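Researcher: Structure for this, please.
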Amino acid sequence: MVQLRFLTGKHSGSFQRIAQFPCSIGRNASADVRLEDPGVWDRHLEIDLDSARCFVLRTRMEASACVNGQPTDQTALKNGDLIEIGASKIQFWLDPTRPKDFRVREFLTWTALLILSACQVALIYWLPW
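Model: Predicted structure, token format:
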């Protein structure tokens, strides 16, 4: 559903996919996304999906974070936003969509058209002129 791309720190260059919300980010071993970079608190922030189907970032009382260079306690996240937590920089992305496989449906459609055409040709030869 969502992926975080780590731009700096120990996880630099890697991705973390998030499918369950709320998702906690911090130094603690029980955090959903664990960061051990300088300036990261045990339970630094949380990303949640609110009732308006919007992703919301909420920091803990003692922690601070910046989204796109602006300090914030709570903000709605958009695709491509840059989250700064201590020395870590994380980019927020929506997961790429995967196209559905329509091969079976397409095969059945062409088969039905072929059968329909064959029935029409058979009717033309069967009906008397």
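Researcher: Any notable elements?
Model: The CA atoms of residues 25 and 33 lie 5 Å apart. The mean pLDDT is 87.
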